[in-house]
Design brief:
With 157 residues, this protein is an alpha+beta fold. The protein has one domain (3-142): Aminopeptidase (3-Layer(aba) Sandwich), CATH 3.40.630. The chain has helices at residues 13-31, 39-52, 106-120, 135-142, and strands spanning 3-7, 57-64, 69-78, 89-97, 125-128. The chain has a 5-stranded mixed β-sheet, sandwiched between helices. Helix 1 (13-31) packs across helix 2. The radius of gyration is 16 Å and the shape is globular. It starts with a strand and ends in a 15-residue tail after the last helix.
C-alpha cells in the first residue's frame, strides 16, 4: 500500500467534505431515494470542524503517495446509556476509499487505526451501519470481525 493515514486537522476539512460528498453520491445516492446528497457540501464543514475538537470523535484521511486525499474514516464513541449500561461503543460512522485505490489496503489501514483509537478510548464493542445492498462494504466489515446484531427493515407508504 502506498498510502498514508493521518488524523485530520482543521486545514483538511475541505478534503473530508469532498470525500463525504463522494460517499453520499456513490452509496446513498444509489441506495436511498431520500438521501440529501447536498448535505456534505451544505453542512459538512461545520460538522467535521466540530468533530475535530471533540475527544469522542476521530477523523482520519488517507493520502496517496502523490499527496492527494483518497479516503476518510469518521469514528465516534457512544457512551453507555440506561438501555445498555455496560456498552461503550466505537461507532464507525463513515468510511470511504476512492474506487481507484480499493483492494490495496487503504480501507484496512483506516479501520485498524479506528480499532486502536476505539480501544484506547475505552470502547468494548464496535458498530457500523451499511446499506443491505452494499455487498462489498458488508464483506469488508465482516472480514474485520463485524457480525449482524440488529436489523432495520423499511417499508414504503
Amino acid at each position: 500500500m502506498n498510502a498514508v493515514v493521518v488524523r485530520a486537522t482543521s486545514g483538511s476539512v475541505p478534503q473530508l467534505v469532498a470525500s463525504a460528498t463522494a460517499l453520499f453520491a456513490e452509496d446513498g445516492g444509489q441506495r436511498d431515494p431520500w438521501m440529501d446528497l447536498t448535505w456534505p457540501r451544505r453542512e459538512g464543514s461545520a460538522y467535521f470542524a466540530d468533530l475535530l475538537h471533540r475527544d469522542d470523535s476521530l477523523c482520519l484521511l488517507a493520502f496517496s503517495a502523490s499527496g492527494s486525499a483518497i479516503g476518510h474514516l469518521i469514528g465516534r464513541i457512544r457512551r453507555p446509556d440506561p438501555l445498555r449500561p455496560g456498552a461503550v461503543v466505537g461507532v464507525l460512522e463513515s468510511l470511504r476509499v476512492d474506487t481507484a485505490h480499493r483492494g490495496i489496503g487503504v480501507g484496512t489501514a483506516l479501520a485498524e487505526e479506528f480499532f486502536a483509537w476505539a480501544r484506547e478510548s475505552g470502547a468494548n464493542q464496535l458498530s457500523v451501519t451499511a446499506y443491505a445492498a452494499n455487498e462489498s462494504a458488508i464483506s469488508f466489515y465482516r472480514s474485520r470481525g463485524f457480525a449482524p446484531f440488529e436489523l432495520t427493515l423499511h417499508a414504503p407508504l
